[in-house]
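Hi L., both proteins are below.
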Amino acid sequence: MAACAYLLSKIAELVLIGANVIDTGRLNFAIYDIGTKAKQLEPSFRRSIFDRVEKVLSNAHTQPVAVEAIGWLKIHLLGDDIAQPKERVKPRADVAIVTVINDERKAVSRVFGIDLNKPDFDIHGRNVYSASLTERGPGKRPINIYITMVGEPRNVPCANVCRDIIEKLNVDLLILCGIAGGNRDRKVALAHVVAPGMIFYVEGGKIHIYTRLLRKWYGGFGGRMDSILNFLGYFLGRKRFTEPEIITKNMLDPEKAYLQNFEPQNAEAVRLCEMALASYSPDEYPPGTNMALNNYECHRTHAMCGEKVLVDDGLRKLAQDVNRKIYAVDMESYGFAAACEHSRKPWVVFRGISDYADPKKDDSRHIVASVAAAVTARLFLQRAYKLPEERQEF
């Protein structure tokens, strides 16, 4: 300690000679000497020596040699004690449930027992709520869940929220839970639930064609044929043929296998749905809302996604050209699945059928369809899903 005090006085003398004229060699030697000797002292003494040297050199803080000396001494004496910037610890949950509109979020909150007045935190202004799912059977721990809402329809907003969740939170599985339009040809009833293993992204590319026969050679004639068909359209009608652009997303294993083995008991699902629906007060849903659950069934099949709201019975027509196993259509599932797969996160989608995407489409069954989807998600997590530590590798 005495040697350090002597060296400190020598450093002070070097600086007092002139703050703008410092003997660089002598100062560097003195700093190295005091740093070497002080390194052997207790942490509190090392801190004291550094503070005194820093104070002495404060008059010469604009000189590069002084800045370098302070920097080296700080690392040399306090390197073990300086709090290094730590990587931010992400909030942890097993599952994140994503909803799109408020009816869907409210249904999930009723089924999973969440108080929407008490969010845990927010991500870019979107509230995130936590829940714990128990009753999973002996020897299985509860599943911790985060729930949030996109707030607007379509693929891009949903994909952006999923990316935020994956970036900010540490989750093993993402679930999209909400409503969709149903395919009447597939005998899917209102309030039934569709759990797709494959999602078809379909956007119709309108082609100026009046017969399928012209389809093969129409493009070869360019604008002249377009003009001719436009002229003939006055006499033949202007019906167009739609050639859909199709991209698919498939579920990832092992969640795909869990969904295939998922056999929800209809009686249990109906009981949970009725309990959730009974918790709504009359002022929580608009007049004309249909709160009756006539029957329940979960269809593990395919779904279609597009950016346009279908109200012209287009689902049935497109499903004939795309895949006959398409039971539902929505505007978010492809963006959701694409964002998850981009980050190699498994995903599951549960969609309650609220209408048939035809001219009779309305919002009267949004709540009951949302509740049915939320109940199906709960039963899937309770009965079929396995946490990573519960999986057995063969």
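That was the first. Here is the second:
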Amino acid sequence: MNMAKGDHYEVKDMSLAAQGKNNLELAELNMGALMEVKKRFKKEKPLKGVRIGMALHVTKETGILVRTLLAGGADVYITGCNPLSTQDDVAAALAKEGVKVWGYKGENNEDYYRYIKYVIEAKPHITIDDGCDLVSEIHKNHPKLIKGIICGCEETTTGIIRLQAMAKAKALKYPMIAVNDNKTKHLVDNFYGTGQSSIDGILRATNLLYAGKTFVVCGYGSCGKGLADRARGLGANVVVTEVDNFCALQAHYDGFRVMKLADAVKIGDIFCTVTGNKHVIRVEHMKKMKNGAILSNSGHFDIELELSRLNKVADSKRRVRPFMDEYVLKGKKIFVLGEGRLVNLSAAEGHPSEVMSTSFCGQALACEYGVKNKGKMPVGVVQLPGEIDDTIAGLQLKAMGIEIDEMTAEQKRYMDTWEEGT
């Protein structure tokens, strides 16, 4: 592939920059909370002299985060965190602005890790990751850089799972701030964002009617809850599969049918995995599915569907729509969307800008927190203080023009005492 290359970028086509600029403007319009952070950062420069290396989805929303960090004085280097999630017009627009950016939609494995290496070669003081590939590469192949790293920030559930595994194995060597675990992130990004954008991706890939279909959601964490809720809103009959007792119980009380995946595969029309685990839907399940069943994934990696084996045992495979592959398995057709990668980003545009505003407030404020607490944070997975999460919620309320009450002095005193009772 002939790429557009420069000293500070490698993108698909620089002629797309004008459209990318328009999309960045539209994103800014709907990211009022992050704009408040950017305004303060521009004035205070809390990240002056800090090199930030990023492996995030290169979308219009991420572009606004990049601008926010630059406004705070940081030197920013960015590449993608998924081969199908980069928006080429946005990458071109950022490159034209002078941002150090590498990425294109449809990256092969070689380019994906070459671009991550470019970010690593900048010797970042802070890493921002979505899925933990950047952090993993640094630990495995560039350990000498670790002593110069202040902290990292992780965006997604899959990344946190990997980080916790690293910490358990005593392999994690610098503090990682779990931005994903902010309450605002779980609520707005995971629940509302993943719910809506995954539905959007499946619709764009297939143009199918949801009403009356049996929609199987594998995993009932924050993302699965949002997806199940939105599928039901479109008239689907939702089935949930789970391995966690509490999550399964909640799904049942929320009004969804809960069953083993081995039973769900016999009745499902559309399947979507949101577990953060590996080989959730396997070939053994696919063989029991209806003719015409649709498989998708909204977890970070493409391994939730056992495609490696499917590609070996399928009778045939062909692309029938841009993000829809038909597999024939023992004479029966099943369809896989977005090559099994994040369907909301491979077949659609990811979360709406308003959603990512709160998530990226978390990233920007986590970077500031890391700089302020350099050398004070423990090595491991670190939570942001609750007051920062509360600040993010307040910024979003302000952006939406919503005012809330305040406690009176008497009420504040009451909340701080224990003597007053019946």
